[in-house]
Amino acid sequence: MANASKDAWTIDQLTKSEFFHQKLHEWQMLEVANDLEAIKGEDFTWNRERLMISPKAWDKVIHRGIKPIMVFAHPAVLMRVPRAASYYRMLSMVSQKSMMRVGLGSGSYEKGKSNPDLLAAETLAAHLNRIISNLIEADEEVDAREFELWRGMAAGSQAQGSWGNTKGDKIEVVIKGILQRRMRDRGLVTYENEDGSRMELADGRTVQLADEPDFAIYRDDLVEVAVEIKGGIDTAGVLERIGAAIKSLSRAKRENPLSKTVLIVQAVSITDTARSDLEGNKAWVNYCYYIEDLLDKDEAKSELFVVLGI
To answer: Quick one: which of 85, 88, 172, 254 could link to 106 by a disulfide (CB 3.0–4.6 Å)?
Structure first.
């Protein structure tokens, strides 16, 4: 019992860590920081009074040789650089919800869907700079590395909120996220809808993230690969979960006998009876992977990517 409990907590840690890691990339935190670093902020006119940058905070930053553009929001940057609003909002360590409360919702800007117009950019910059200036003034000395920690704290808090709000099986969400990121990173995606549940690939295939199956790849509306993801460590319910997965995968096989079918399940939940059930249904389940391996071993992920052709 103790080992099962330890294994369950380990899976929870691996899942949550991967979820947070996915959010780092989803929010493009590194990319936005690099985009800002490349901007020549000295070419801008810094009306510090209008932008609510305190003289003391400005002097501290300048005297440490830190580029102001990496610390203080400028309307031109907010209007030009996608997601720049998220950089400065996180730097000020305030939440998206609190920005909504003060009438400065930045959600659409942070998702890269749009950039603020001049008035909105000036208002947003002044509000965030006021908070950032106060934070800088509270420190005796300014260290550039601290700004990254500020952003990290805000990002962690936001990721924790997203984790708590995640509907359904968190493990399923994380595994789907791994597959989505793989396709995006390799440049395979030519189109995807807003939530990424439907993707069109450059080779003509279509990816659908839904239920029954949880993940499927189609070509000309014919299923090529079907994947079922079954989390949960309750051994009492594992036969029911596997039975539902086999039923879903068998439908894919009947639709296209040449399709590949994949079951992803937690090793800690597999009983001898469940293992025997899987052995007896190899005609419907071509491949079986353990969630623990996919979260912890690159070899397992690479093998799954090959099976999926991504």
So the answer is: 85
Is the same domain home to 110 and 196?
no
Q: Which two tokens stand for residue 147?
A: 């700004």
Does residue 145 share a domain with residue 182?
no
Residues 6+ apart with CB under 8 A from 186: 310
159 and 179 belong to one structural domain: no
| Residue environment code for 55-65, b if the CB has 16+ CB neighbours within 10 A, otherwise e | eebbebbeeee
Among candidate residues 145, 165, 185, the one where a domain is terminated: 165
Q: What is the pLDDT of residues 171-207, one digit of tens each?
A: 889 999 999 999 999 999 999 998 889 999 999 999 9
Convert the pLDDT of each residue in 151-165 to its tens digit: 999 999 999 998 888
Name residue, tokens 């929001």.
73
Pair (13, 157) in one structural domain: yes
Q: Per the structure block, which two tokens stand in for 131? A: 């908070």
Give the Cβ contact number of residue 37 at 10 Å: 11
Q: How far apart are CA 245 and CA 263, in angstroms?
A: 7
Domain that holds residue 232: 170-308
Cα separation, 28 vs 13, in Å, equals 23
Regarding whether 208 and 160 lie in a shared domain, the answer is no
Token readout for 137 is: 């003034």
